[in-house]
Write a structure and sequence with these properties.
Arc Repressor Mutant, subunit A, MarR family transcriptional regulator, HTH_MarR-typ, WH_DNA-bd_sf, transcription, ArsR-like_HTH
Amino acid sequence: MTDLTDDLFLIHPNDSTTSPAAPTLDFTRTPTVLLTFAGNRFTRSATKDYLEKFGIGVMDWRVLVMLTREPGSSVSHAAQTMGIDKAAVSRALQRMGKAGLVTSETLLKDDRRKDWTLTPFGHDLHARILERALERQRHLLSGFDPSEVEAFTGYLRRFLENLETLNASDQ
């Protein structure tokens, strides 16, 4: 493990005119804070855009992507893969089922265990939103060259691996 000093991430009283009363996380130098802020703003922006243009939010879009990649996924598998609460995935699937985007097959005579797939309408919507998602991604990554995008993606994968290790040690 690399030695990263806490001072790398903290702002102290009297560091600037906007200093806090006590040492705390710096909003501009702390990767976890910046990642949280970016994730929240990205999700809010994508939800607004997709709702206006396609009538679904970012949660439903994530499920469309999941079922395009892995047709026949269960709620548990989708939730684990995406790192999202099973209840949120289940609500999205119910909503998407009512909209005619997904269909399910009950397995082993257990209504709680279903495999979900996209309908033709779901595949069509995925294709239309994918164009917009790629456009948004190009905009968000403008100014980055391909090697920077690869490095950034690698950093995020490593961060996620470290998070998995942290979560496993917390259990």
